[in-house]
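Figure 6 in text form: structure in, sequence out.
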């Protein structure tokens, strides 16, 4: 088919999360998805980096070079009306290369929307596909299947994922959508600013680790789990490194940034829908953290709005983010020092525990050797003398400045004839 005769699919999952990054382009897609403006917008999105559509995606460049060198090996798929179901990115690359034609397979005229969606997913999710769905578009594709009422087991099979990955994907998308909702702010000149899905595109690793930490903490304290989410979300908004985000526990702000916590507003009792039963809302600690994170969410939304907001409002939002960034950096520095001290504190105990496990294994080996009359004490004499020497050094090190109250220290001193 002539490249210019086929059309991009406005419903492709490949750029679902990126569609809203440009208000004018998004409106054109809603008003006339087959028009020149909308199709040009889709072309730019298909070439763009999922995390920043204004930049060219390196994987798109790689695809273009592959097509330039080897040509098109796999055909795209179009509907009878000429809409690409599979091959949207290849068409964009071929257009950029100035190619006149694209090889396609044509679906029968009775192919319905369910058939079309199934074909796209099955082809896009193949292991050998050159350009995978981005993080957010993968989450949206799963959620779309859920909203259509498909069973979780069927979705997991289609996407080739385990139940744990399915649950994690759903949780992360709900978490992100809630953050976006909380970020909505009406600026002084009437502009409605908010974060969007693309703002979380590059945060996959941090969000997946957050889910794992949330599940672990929620088992012992739902309130601590909520507090953990709020504080790690703040660090994610400030684009802190994954290793730094890991330092943030449920009491991070309380320990290292307490001066920043606002006084929370009173929390009204919550009613259970369909009943007259009322339950307590979030704790004061959680509400205080939510207010702090809300301020960061709204400030980032205003900052991202750029020239659409008044300069003084943008400056105030930027100042808020800079101040929060400095405070979080300082707190992370303290938390890192504490983590290193704690690691150093327990390192010796961990090493001794490892040595004890090795000794247990040695006992088993001696027992096995004796059982088949293959054991001789002389065989391990040199190793035992080395162990004696190491225990004497350990005993001498522990005895320095030690009062001798510890049973373990007393035992080691007696074993190595060290006076405490």
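Output sequence:
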């Amino acid at each position: 088919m002539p490249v210019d005769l086929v059309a991009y699919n406005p419903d492709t999952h490949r750029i679902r999360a990126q569609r809203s990054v440009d208000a004018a382009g998004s409106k054109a897609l809603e008003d006339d998805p087959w028009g020149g403006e909308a199709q040009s917008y889709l072309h730019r999105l298909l070439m763009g980096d999922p995390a920043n559509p204004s930049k060219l995606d390196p994987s798109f460049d790689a695809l273009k070079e592959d097509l330039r060198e080897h040509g098109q090996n796999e055909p795209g798929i179009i509907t009878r009306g000429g809409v690409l179901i599979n091959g949207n990115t290849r068409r964009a690359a071929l257009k950029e290369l100035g190619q006149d034609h694209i090889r396609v397979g044509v679906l029968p005229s009775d192919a319905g929307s369910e058939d079309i969606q199934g074909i796209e997913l099955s082809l896009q999710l193949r292991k050998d596909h050159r350009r995978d769905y981005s993080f957010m578009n993968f989450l949206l594709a799963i959620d779309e299947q859920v909203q259509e009422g498909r069973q979780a087991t069927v979705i997991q099979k289609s996407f080739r994922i385990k139940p744990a990955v399915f649950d994690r994907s759903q949780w992360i998308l709900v978490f992100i959508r809630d953050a976006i909702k909380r970020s909505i702010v009406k600026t002084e000149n009437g502009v409605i600013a908010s974060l969007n899905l693309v703002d979380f595109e590059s945060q996959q690793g941090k969000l997946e680790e957050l889910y794992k930490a949330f599940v672990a903490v929620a088992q012992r304290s739902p309130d601590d789990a909520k507090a953990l989410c709020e504080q790690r979300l703040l660090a994610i908004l400030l684009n802190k490194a994954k290793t730094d985000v890991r330092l943030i526990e449920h009491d991070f702000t309380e320990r290292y940034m307490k001066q920043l916590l606002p006084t929370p507003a009173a929390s009204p009792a919550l009613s259970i829908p369909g009943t007259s039963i009322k339950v307590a809302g979030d704790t004061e600690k959680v509400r205080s953290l939510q207010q702090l994170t809300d301020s960061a969410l709204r400030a980032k939304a205003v900052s991202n709005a750029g020239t659409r907001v008044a300069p003084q409002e943008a400056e105030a939002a930027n100042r808020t983010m800079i101040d929060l960034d400095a405070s979080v950096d300082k707190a992370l520095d303290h938390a890192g020092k504490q983590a290193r001290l704690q690691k150093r504190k327990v390192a010796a105990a961990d090493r001794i525990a490892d040595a004890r496990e090795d000794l247990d294994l040695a006992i088993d080996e001696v027992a096995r050797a004796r059982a088949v009359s293959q054991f001789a004490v002389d065989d391990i004499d040199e190793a035992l003398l080395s162990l004696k020497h190491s225990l004497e050094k350990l005993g001498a090190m522990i005895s320095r400045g030690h009062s001798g109250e510890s049973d373990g220290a007393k035992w080691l001193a007696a074993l190595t004839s060290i006076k405490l």
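Caption detail: Residues 311-371 form the longest helix (61 residues).
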